[in-house]
C-alpha cells in the first residue's frame, strides 16, 4: 500500500460521512468497526515502517496550488509514527467505552471527524495542510464539549475554541512569513516542511518566528500561563472528550515544537532555553500544587496533565537525543496514561454522577478491579520504573540535565509532587472505610470497560519493561533531527548546546 | 477656452452635490436621484479624461456605467415600490432592521 | 549459571503473579504454599550461586536491552558477585522464613492471597535491586521495593484516619503515603546522582563507572557521593527522612520483619557498599555518612527508651542499627557494614516475628505496658525474642556481638573517638531498651489479665519456620573469618592498626560492660513489675522522646500544612483570580469594546452613509498625505 497515509486520513472521513446513513441502533458497532480498522491500518503502518531510517517514509506528494507551493505532502518518521498509532488506539478505546449518551450517532461521527483531523496533523508535511487539519480538529471538539458537556459547557467550549484559535492565528502569520522569506530567498513559493528545513534563517528572524510559533504551540500544550482553558475544557467535557483531548490534542503542541521550532529555528530554540525552561518548571511545580488543591478527581488529572506536559517541554528543549527521544516517548506514555485515568474517572462518574473525592472513600474494597487498574495507572503517572511513565520522564530529565542541572533538579520535583497529589487522590477515594451508603453497592468494572482498560494496562507494563520497539524508531529519527540541527546551527552557543550523540558522530 | 480642469471641477461639484444629497435626504427616492447624480459626475470625468488622453476606454466605461445605472434604477425602483407598498413610506428613518 | 541467576530472580515474580491471579478471591491456602515454595527455590538457587561465587567466581548475565536512546544504553543486566551473593542469600532466606511464617500469621485475613502477591513482588524487586549491574537497574528495584512497601504498609487500607494522639501513625494508608513520598524526595537526589554519573562517565554500568572514578574531579565525586547518599537516606530512613519508618509499623508484622527491618531499609547501606570505590575516593563524604549514621544511631535509640509500642521500639532499634551500618560504611569498613547488615537481618527479623507472635496472642495489642509475664504462656516466642535481644544488645557469643564490636573497633581505629563514644553509649542504650521490652512483655506481673486477654502460643510450624533465624542469630558471628575471606574478594580488606590491636581486649571489655550494664538496669527496673512514675512521664525530656522530638508534628506544621495552604492559594488566588481572570479580562475588553461600538450600527441607512462618507473622506485625506509625503 503506497498511499497508506492517505488511506489513514480518508478512510475515517468517508466512514464518517457514510455514518450519517447508518441506523442509530447499529451506530456503535459501526463506529467500533471503523475505528478498529483504522487502528489495524496504523499497526500495519508501524509494521512496514523501516526502523533504521530516520527520515520521512511513506511520502505522498502532489501539488494542490502549485503557484503558491501548496502541496498535498504527507510522510511519517519515528517521531510522528507512534503518535498516529496512539491516536487510532485511543479513538478506538474511547468509542468502545462510550456509555449511553444522547445522540450517540452524532458523537461517533464527530469522533471519526476528529480522528481525521488528528491523523492529518501528525502526517502532514506541508504547513498549509498541517494548519488546515490543526484548525479542523477544533470543530468536532467544540461540538463534543458544547453539546455533551456539563453545566458550563458553552463557556468551556467557546473558551477552548477561541483561545487555541487565537494562538493558531499567530502561528499562521508565522508560517506565512516563513513562506515569504522562502520566496525572497529562492524565488519560489513553498510550504513544504522539508523545503523550510533547508532554509537557513537569520538569527533575528528566527527569534521573532520562534515566538510566533511558540504562542500557537504553547496554548495548545498548554503551557503556563496559557493553560486556564484546559481545566474548564476537561471539567465540562464528557469522558470521551477528555480522553481525546488529553491523549492526543495536547500532544499537537509539543509535537509542533519538535516538528517546527527545533529544526527550523535551532539557534532561537537554544537562545530561549532559559525562558522556556522556566515556564516548564513553573508548569511542573505550580500546576502540581494546584492539582493537589483540587477536590474533583477529574480536575486533579487535568492539572496533572499540565504538570507532565512541563516535563515533556523540558525534554524537548534538552537539545540532545536523550532528552528529545524521552519527550517524544513521554508524549505517548502521557497520552496512554492520562487517557486511561480520564476513562477511569469516567467509570466512577457514570456510576455516581459525581467526581468529588469527598463523595468516595474505601472504593478499593468495593471495586477491587477498578482499584487495581487505577493503581497501575497511578504508578505509571508518578513514573514508576517498569511502567511506561518512567522511561520518558527519566530520559527527559536526564537529557535536560546536560543543559542545566539546577533547572532539572527543580523540574525533578515532578517526581515528588506527582506522588503527592496522586497518592492523596488515591487515599481519599480508594482507602479508608466506605462511608457513603450508596458506595457500598457500586458494581465493579463491566466487560466494556475492561475491554478498554485492560489493553491500556497491558501497554503500560509492556512498554515500561520493553520500550525498544517504540523507543528505537523514535531514537533513530531524533538522532537524525539533532544531527540536522547541529549542522544548521549558526551561533556558537547553539553549536555548544546541541549535543549530537557519539554513535551519530562515529557513523559520520 | 474650456479645458480639462473645467470638466473635472464640474464633475467634482456634481459629485459633492450627490454626496450631500445621499447624506442629507431621508427619502429613498431622493437618495436614488443623488446616487444618479454621483454616477453622472463620474461619467463626465471619464468622458473628459478620455477625450483629453485620446483613449476610448474612458468613454466606453461611461457607457457601461450608464447601462448599469439604468438596470440598477429598474431594479431599485421595483424594490422601492415594494417597500412603499409594504410600509407605506419611503422615509429612511423607519428602516432600522439592521440595528445592532 | 545463567539458569540459576534467573531462577533466583524470577521465582518470586512467578509466585507473585500466581498469587495475583487469586488476588480478589477469598483465602486459598494454595497461594501461600506456592509462593513459599517458590521462595524456597529462590533461596536454594541463591545459596548455589553463593557457593559458585565462592569457588568459581562472579556471574554476569544480560537479559536484554531496556532503555536505549542517544548514547544511553541501559540493559537488564545482572551481576552476582560477593556482595550480591551475600545480599541475595540473606534476602531470600529471610523472605522464605517470612513467607512460611505469614501462612500462619495471615491465616484469618481476608486479603490472604493479595498479601502473598505483594510480599513476593517485594522480594523480586529487592533481588533486582541487589542483582542489577547498573545504577538504573538498581533504581528499578529501589522504586519497586518502594511501591511494595507502600502496598504492604497500607495493606489494611480500610482503617480510618485517627488523630495523632490516638495513633501516632494516623492510619495505614496515611503511613503508606508518607513512606512513599519521603522516599520520593530521596529518590530525586538519587536520580540527580545518576544523571551526574551518566553525563560525566557516559555509562551507568557499575564496572564502567568505578573504572572511571580516578579520572573524575574531586568536586564531582563529592557531588555524586552526596546525591547518591541522599537516595540512601530515604530508603534507609536516615535523619531527616526517618519519620516514615516508625509509622510504617502500621503494616502487618511479617512485612515489618521483612521490609522494614531485614531487607529494604538496608538498601541504602547496600548502595554505599556497592559504590565503595566512589566513597573510598572521597573520604570527606564518607565521614559525613558516618556522622549522620552515628547521629541516627543514638537519636533513634533515645526514642526507643520510652516508647510503649512493641513494634515502634523495634523500629527505632532498626533505625539505630542502620546508623551503625552507615557509620561503618562511611569510615571505609565496607565489609563490616555488610557483616552487620546480614547479622542484623537475621536477629531483627527474628525479633519482629516474635513480636508478631505476641501481637497475635494479644489480639493486636501493642502496648507493652499491658503485657507482662508472657513467658509462661509463650515459651518458644520468649526464647526466640530473648536470643534476638541478646544478639541485638551485642552480648557474646551472639551474632550482634561480633558485628557491632567490629564497628566500634573501626571507629576507634580511625581515631574518630567522638563517633566511637556515641556508638559505645548507644550500645548501652540498645541493651537497655531491648531488655526493657523483654522484661516488660515476658517477665514482670501479668498485667494482661486486667485487660481480659487470653494469650496463647502460635502454631508449631510457625515456630519451626523461625528456627533458622534463631540459629543464625546465635551462630552467624562465629563465621566472621570465613565471611571476611569471602567478601574481601570484592570489598577492600579493612585492617586495624597495631595500636588498636593492642587495645582490642580493653575495647571488647568496655563494650560488653556497657551492654551488660544496660541489661542490668532494665532488669532492676522492670523484671518484677511495671513501675510507672507520673513525675517522670510528665517531665519534658520524657515527653520530647515520647513524641519523637516533636519532629512529625514539626514536619506537618512546616511542610505538609503550608504546602496544602499554598496549593490552595495557588489554585484559588493565583490560578482563578490572576491567570484565568486575565484571560477572561482580555475577552471582556474585546466584548465591551464591541458593545460600545455597536451604537454605530443604528440600522439607519443614512447614518451608515454618513459613516461611509466620513470614512471615504478620511481615506482620501490619508491618500493625499501619503502622496504628499511620498
Q: How are the elements arranged and paired?
A:
The complex is a heterotrimer of chains A (508), B (100) and C (630).
Chain A: H1 4-19, H2 27-47, E1 57-65, E2 70-76, H3 78-97, H4 104-123, H5 127-136, H6 138-148, H7 153-186, H8 193-198, H9 203-220, H10 229-236, H11 239-264, H12 266-271, H13 273-293, H14 297-316, H15 321-352, H16 363-366, H17 368-381, H18 388-403, H19 405-411, H20 413-430, H21 447-465, H22 468-488, H23 492-497, H24 502-507
Antiparallel strand pairs in A: 1-2
Helix pairs in contact in A: 1-2, 1-4, 2-3, 2-4, 3-4, 3-11, 3-15, 3-21, 4-5, 4-6, 5-7, 6-7, 7-9, 7-10, 9-11, 10-14, 11-14, 11-15, 13-14, 13-20, 14-15, 14-18, 14-20, 15-17, 15-18, 15-21, 15-22, 17-20, 17-21, 18-19, 18-21
Chain B: H1 4-24, H2 28-53, H3 57-87
Helix pairs in contact in B: 1-2, 2-3
Chain C: H1 2-21, H2 29-55, E1 59-69, E2 72-80, H3 82-105, H4 112-131, H5 135-153, H6 172-201, H7 206-212, H8 218-235, H9 243-247, H10 253-262, H11 267-274, H12 276-281, H13 283-306, H14 310-330, H15 334-361, H16 379-393, H17 399-413, H18 417-442, H19 460-475, H20 480-487, H21 498-526, H22 534-538, H23 540-546, H24 551-597, H25 605-629
Antiparallel strand pairs in C: 1-2
What does this structure look like?
The complex is a heterotrimer of chains A (508), B (100) and C (630). With 508 residues, chain A is mainly alpha-helical. Chain A has a two-stranded antiparallel sheet with strand order 1-2. Chain A has a domain at 273-465. In chain A, helix 18 packs antiparallel against helix 19 (405-411) and helix 18 packs across helix 21. The longest helix of chain A has 34 residues, at 153-186. Chain A contains 24 helices and two strands. Chain B is mainly alpha-helical and 100 residues long. Chain B has helices at residues 4-24, 28-53, 57-87. In chain B, helix 1 packs antiparallel against helix 2 (28-53) and helix 2 (28-53) packs antiparallel against helix 3 (57-87). Chain B starts with a helix and ends in a 13-residue tail after the last helix. Chain C is mainly α and 630 residues long. A two-stranded antiparallel sheet of chain C has the order 1-2. In chain C, a hairpin with a 2-residue loop joins strand 1 and strand 2 (72-80). The mean pLDDT of chain C is 90. Chains A and C meet through helix 7, helix 13, helix 15, helix 17 and helix 18 of A and strand 1, helix 5, helix 6 and helix 24 of C.
